[in-house]
Amino acid sequence: MKISDFGTAGNTLKADEIPAGRTLRLKIHGFEVQAFENEDGSKDEKCVIMFVDKDKGIATGVQNLREIGRVYGEDMDTWIGKDLEVSTAIKGNDKLGFVLRGVVAGDAAGSDDIPF
Fold first, then answer.
1. In the chain, what are the domain boundaries?
2. Which CATH architecture fits 3-102?
3. CA distance 54 to 114
4. So what's the pLDDT on residue 114?
């Protein structure tokens, strides 16, 4: 897949749109690239994860992509159709941000079964 294969992302979900303490489980539909303006006026391109039956996607950086990749692997094309747990937390920059996690097969939300 090439960056030129992506379209324009449209609307993206903001972290403060998810109620505090909630974890959503969403199915990945695909990915798009969108340019974002930073606070200093510079621009960055971010991956926007789009979800099945949702109008908004989540713009994310490399850290969250790597976290998802720990479960689903390096090739993002294989992530399509898989579940993603989405919650929020205060990040290192003291701003509310997304916490994204791939779901291990058979893993029930809130399970306390730790494999060690």
1. 3-102
2. Beta Barrel (2.40)
3. 32
4. 47
